[in-house]
Amino acid sequence: MSEMPIQPLLHVREATKRYGEVRALDGVSLEIGDGEFLTLLGPSGSGKTTLLTAIAGFTELDAGSLTLGGTEITQMPPDKRDFGMVFQGYALFPTMTVAKNIAFPLKIRKWSRADIDRRVKECLALVQMEDYAERMPSQLSGGQQQRVALARALSFHPKVLLLDEPLSALDKKLRADLQWELKDLHRKIGVTFIYVTHDQEEALSMSDRIVILESGRIQQIGEPDELYAHPRTSFVADFLGKSNFFEVTVRGAGAGQVTCTAGEVEMQVQQRNGAAAPAAGRTARVALRPERVRLGPCGSERFSGTIRQHSYLGERSQVIVENEALGRVLVSCPTWKSQVELRQGQPISFGWDDDAPILLDDA
Amino acid sequence: MTTTTIDPPAAAAARRGLSDRGWYWLFVAPALIAMVVFYIWPLVQIFGISFTEPEFGLGNYAALVESRPIQTSLVITFRVAAVTTLLCLVLGYMVSYAIYNAQHRMVGVMLALVLLPFWISVLIRSFAWIVLLGRSGVVNDSLIALGLIEKPIAMMHNEFGVVLAMVHVMLPFAVLPMMANMKGINRAYVDAARGLGASEFGAFWHVYLPQTKPGILSAALLVFVLSLGFYITPALLGGGRVLMISEYITYQIQELLRWGVGSMLSVTLLVMTAVVILAAARFVNLRKALLERG
Ligand SMILES: Nc1ncnc2c1ncn2[C@@H]1O[C@H](COP(=O)(O)OP(=O)(O)O)[C@@H](O)[C@H]1O
Ligand SMILES: [Mg+2]
């Protein structure tokens, strides 16, 4: 796990929430830095919304505590926490105009008329919606509603901004644009963002750190590149990007490198920084990223195999190669520098560098 | 045709050579004829009588300006209907809110309790109130036995008793449209308001209440219009002293055989009701409010 980059603002300790038999949160502990962009990533039902709404104060925890800058807020009602929240469906008030929606939190806080007008203008400008102040929410497109929800959540200078899958209802192109805008906005205003998504690309591209959740438990926390390069469990290795998995037996270890055998095949495997060397004879699991596998003309690489499937994705090709000892291996290679013809049934040669395979913690 | 899923009337029509439109009218006709013979036609006659009995002209309508008792009755009618509507809205709103926001397994039972009064005759319910509110009724007897009062309080044969019993009868008509409205309101808006800093009451007042306005308006319209023409309960609990317009009409026709005045008042009530509905149409989507409930 990477260290907290900045001073911690929010602490979650041993947060637990059950719904009948389901453990929506199961002992989740987490520190969130001041000004950080933290993403909660996990498949549907993993407890992301539960964790976010617990932080916001809508979900009461069965056990555990929350502290904000040293003050315990576990029992504090949501309106006292001063967190901005962008809900999954935006929840713009249907009876109010865009401007009234953004003014709502300010009116509640008894700001003066003049201050409210000025701040609403500022916020509309911040999300580039100046021309829509008098529209009703129902007259806006999904992307515009999202912007208004964001402006409303930011208008009162919240300490933390909570966002629950704010882009998931939008189409792909718009989503990509808004990812940039959100990231930009975060840099500009410096408020702590806690961002929920089930989309791994979104998480990788936007976050300072990512928390990977599964079945109410934290699987791993880390910076995007670190999580991608050094997944700790097969779940993380498969959820963040794709992976090939090999069951191996450890033969010997030294200096971050472990020697393993998968069946007949001997391979060198990377260990995460600081992980204890595994005992020889232990069985373990190894992950190998498809893009780390090289394809070449017969004889040029260590293994030989046959192309079983090939799909062309534009910038990349995905190829499934079969080798007797290793079974099927997924390969992802850039199309522009392919030196071999990719055709089903074609014999081919493949291999990888020694630093490509990663030793996982779960057997 | 090769499909087996054509609906029977269409299939039958195709066989017998009746068009879809023909079938449509065949189904509608019995109700339409009954409506014209037993409803529209008598109405037209009432309308005629109001201008011809006892003599041709506007004589009957002059009573609207000249007759003190008729004016009093009209004022009472509007006042009782308005107070009943107001009370039904407040109580009905609370009931609907409780049903849709209580978040427990009682919703079914609570709904049944709201609908239960529909299965008991209005007559019986009104008599029940007489048993409760009379001079030596249950309430007065209990209060005297407890030593809280010395002489019985007049709780019926006045507007208090009439309004009380009318609220009881009308409450479901207020609850149903408001409940239908609340059912469609997403909880997320109130949560969002809380998250943005509103107190529980603030979230209700600024965010929830405005969204229930259509339900409130259609409930108000329904209860008010029904109350304007209500007969049984005011007649029984008013005891002849709270003469609402429908009882006044009955009195004119049955006791005094003054068909002209009775018909004129009926037409007046009809027109006033129509005016109320048309006025309300500016604010409420009538089709939604009255036809698409539940
Ligand atoms: N109000 C609730 N009642 C019952 N079960 C719930 C409730 N909210 C969430 N859950 C359950 O808790 C688990 C986590 O849900 P959630 O936090 O919404 O997941 P995510 O947002 O990651 O999709 C799921 O199994 C879900 O079914
Ligand atoms: Mg969710």
Automatic annotation (TrEMBL), chain A:
SUPFAM superfamilies in UniProt: MOP-like, P-loop containing nucleoside triphosphate hydrolases
Domain ABC transporter span(s) in chain numbering: 10-240
Transmembrane segments: none
EC number: 7.6.2.11
Pfam families: ABC_tran (PF00005), TOBE_2 (PF08402)
Enzyme class: translocase
Designated name of the protein: Spermidine/putrescine import ATP-binding protein PotA
Source species of the chain: Paralimibaculum aggregatum
Name of the gene: potA
UniProtKB/TrEMBL annotation, chain B:
Pfam short name (any one): BPD_transp_1
Membrane topology according to the record: Multi-pass membrane protein
UniProt entry keywords in alphabetical sequence: Cell membrane, Membrane, Transmembrane, Transmembrane helix, Transport
Superkingdom of source: Bacteria
InterPro entries: MetI-like (IPR000515), MetI-like_sf (IPR035906)
Localization, UniProt: Cell membrane
Protein name stated in the entry: ABC transporter permease
